[in-house]
Structures are given as structure tokens and as C-alpha cells.
Amino acid sequence: MNPPSATLAARLVRHRLTGAALASAAASLWFTTTTPLPAADPIFSGPQPSEKTTPFKVLDLASEKEGAERNPIADHAGAPTAMVFLHGIERSLVPLLRVIDEYGAQRRDRIKTEVIFLAPDRLAGEQRSKAASRSLRLQSRIGLSLDGAEGPGNYGLNKDCLMTVVTAVSNRVTANFALVQPGIADAPKVLEALARTAGDTNPPTVASLSTRPGERAGARGGGESMRRDNAASEDKSKAPFPGAVPTDDPLQFLLRRFIRATNDVATTDKLLADVKAHIQSKPDLQKQAIDGWTRVLHFGDHYGNEYSRKVGREFLESLQKSTAPRP
Predict the structure, then answer these.
(1) What's residue 327's pLDDT?
(2) 119 pairs with which residues across the strands?
(3) How far apart, in whole angstroms, are the C-alpha atoms of residue 135 and residue 129?
(4) Residue range 297-305: mean pLDDT, rounded
(5) Exposed e or buried b for every residue in 126-145, given b needs 16+ CB within 10 A?
(6) Is it the case that residue 206 has pLDDT exceeding 70?
(7) Order of strands, sheet of 69-70, starting from the edge strand that comes earlier in the sequence
(8) Domains annotated on the chain, with CATH
(9) Using CA atoms, how far apart are residues 41 and 15, in angstroms rounded to an integer?
(10) Is residue 129 left, alpha or beta, with left meaning phi > 0 and alpha meaning psi from -120 to 50?
(11) Residues β-bridged to residue 173
(12) pLDDT (tens digit per residue) in 43-65
């Protein structure tokens, strides 16, 4: 087994290589739309399966010990644990965060869940994290990393990943999800890892975890818009989600960046132009693009912004018409 220093060094090298690969890919996308895109390299963030979870400190934000410093690793003493590291909060990640949080609440006797916010400024981060956890009514243990926006130094968290999920048993990582643009489409694989870590042979479904019972009854506290989102999520989850995530890595890379809520008009237009160039005269990729945009548009305002959804619908309709069999 590699010593801790070697393991950390290897993870940091992976992190740097990933950042360089992403920068190179972004540069190639910016300067050309005709050259075929390289396959996207895997993205790493945090300790990998079989590696050890080492101690770190957070500021407790939502318990009887609020304001105190604590060590989540020591607190759970090797029990099955899920740690969610957040570099920020965007609307698109809320459904996935809700699934993880609700699973932890329903299986609290089997697994401990931690939501850990990362922020460069402690005071501002504390205020925003508290506001977010109250608004979302999170039931997990909530903490603010005392190591700033980078998070625990020996964890090698990737700032390109809005969310990093790490599950562990006996202080050994069982699963890791480095999510640049997390969303409900990631929920099935994350839920599977949570159940496996907890030894849960009969886990609840993503659909049942997406809406809390009190919210289905119209309980107050989450806001009218959040209740509407929950109802829509529940209705849509009764059947399999339409469409599919592209299996072509460069196309998936572009789609995940296209649905960022923070994109401006110029960025959105450029990404869509790159998609069109990448799939041109390639029926298989065109089918994957139809499936991908069908999937993200199905979730409404959970993904992207008003402009990206508008041009995304236009793109999808145009692509469907151009690929439809001719009579």
C-alpha cells in the first residue's frame, strides 16, 4: 500500500493533469469548431476508492454545537459515512443534494451524512452556508471547512467540481463522485453507492427521495417555488426519465458546460456552435445529442438558464426535424 504522502502526491498529480487537460480542451473549443474533439480525460477530486479518509476540521453550522469546531472523521469513528463537499450552490445541484440528504435521514441508523461547504472567506461563507442549509432544510450534519475554498489540503479537492461526494467505511473510501455540473441524472449511481456503503439491500428509489412527505402535503418552510419543483420532480419520476446522457465523452463534456446556470449569452452560443460542429454528418452523435437535450430539458429550470433553455429547445427541434425519416 502506498504511504499517505505518496497517495496524496499521486492525487495532486491527477488533479493537475486534469486541470491542464480541461484547459487544453477549452482552448481547442474556443479557437476551432471543425477539428474533432479529443476524448475528455477523467476528472478527479478528493480521495479515491480504497484510500484513507484523514481527519480535518469544520465549523459546525446546524446542531446543538453550532459555532464549535469538530472533526467529522473522528466523530463517526469509522462508521459508514457520506461526505458532500460543495464549492457553491446552484439550482441544478439541489435535486441531487436532496436525494443524498433524504437518504441519510431515512437511513440514519446505517450511514452518517455530512454536507461540507467550501468558501474563501470564513465569515461570508458561514452566513451563506447557514442561509442555504435553512432554505433547503437539510437534515445532514452541516459544516464549513476551516481550510478555505480548497478544502482539506490532503484531500486534493478539485475546484472545477461543484460537488464532490465521498463515501467511506472504516475510514476507507468506497466510492467517489467528482461532479462538475451535478444534477438529478447523477442520482441513481450516487444512491447505489450510498446503499452499498450502508449495507442497504433494499434502498428507497430516487423518486421517493426527491420529495419529502411533508412537502407533498403542502408543508410550509421550503417556499412555493420549491414545492412546485418537488411536485414536478415526483410526477416526472414515476416513469423513466426521457432521453439519455451522451456516451460520447466530448459531447457529454460540451453538454455539461452548456447547462451551467452562470453561462452568459456569448458562452452559450459558442458552446452550441461547438456541439453542432462536433455532431455534423454523424448520425450516431446526432442521436446522442437529441437524447441529451431531451433529458436536460425534461427537468425544466433545474438546468441552465432561461436563454440556454430557449436555444436548447430550438436546437433540439431543429435536430429532430433534420434527422426524421423522410416519407
Answers:
(1) 65
(2) none
(3) 10
(4) 80
(5) bebbbebbeebebbbbbbbb
(6) yes
(7) 69-70, 58-60, 141-145, 112-117, 81-86, 163-169, 172-179
(8) 43-236 (3.40.30.10), 249-323 (no CATH)
(9) 11
(10) alpha
(11) 168
(12) 899 999 999 999 999 999 977 77
Contact call for residues 112 and 141 (beta carbons, < 8 A): yes
pLDDT of residue 85: 97
Q: Residue 177, SS3?
A: strand
DSSP reduced 3-state for 59: strand
In the numeric block, which cell numbers belong to residue 5? 504522502
| Number of residues written out for the chain | 327
The DSSP result for 72-99, as a single string, is: HHHHHTT--EEEEEES---GGGHHHHHH
The C-alpha cell at 303 is 438546468
Measured between alpha carbons, how far is 230 from 216 in angstroms, rounded to an integer?
8
End-to-end CA distance of the chain: 63
Q: What is the pLDDT of residue 233?
A: 42
Instruction: Kindly tell me the burial class for residue 314, based on how many C-beta atoms sit within 10 Å of its own C-beta (0-12, 13-18, 19 or more).
Output: exposed
pLDDT score for 240: 60
